[in-house]
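Researcher: Good morning. I'm working through a list of sequences from a screen, and I'd like to move beyond sequence-only analysis. For each chain I'm collecting a predicted structure so we can compare shapes side by side. This is the next one on the list. No need for commentary yet; just the structure.
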Amino acid sequence: MVEYIITGEPQRIERFDYPTDAIREIVISMIVHRDYRDSIASIIKIFDNRIEFYNPGSLYGGITIEDLLTGNYSSKTRNKLIARAFKELGLIERYGSGIMRIHKICKEYGIKEPTFEEVNNGFRVILFKEKISEIEKVTDKVTDKVTDKVTDKVTDNQLKILDAIAKNDVITTNELENIVGISQRKIKENLYKLKGKGILKRIGSAKGGHWKIT
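Model: Good morning. Structure tokens for this chain:
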């Protein structure tokens, strides 16, 4: 299905339920990596809330799914000639990077992360239509900031504050007090702690400005 997004520009934006780049990447991987000695067909099943891609042939060369998601492995190809042909056609950027790229595409598209699993001597990828909620988007940002800039953990109250700001960046401290359930003084303390961690920044003046997630 296609969602039409109306913006201020003359041209509307078309947004498919699933990122077509991810589907393309999965199908190419199915062709390149399947076990052609197995008579079972490669199968794509389309459901209301997901698409499942099944390919005969488990992971090759002792690689695990964890290895694929972290990039901590040396790529080994079951079908070297097919892989080389796709590489020369420019359909593969580099060997062994497909899974990480699919994961990255889905995250940037704002949908639930895909699953990768070995089943019945084969490999299955599931793409989900479900969009990432605002709280999950905020959690991702917080995780990145905590990993990159700070060692202190973000508290539950701070996460609630960030979630509220993500939904309404002009929210007042009075409104935050009601949402989080702590005093305005504590709200302000947490806001400035998040600012100190580089997660929030203040836009405009102290009275007329607002907070923004960096």
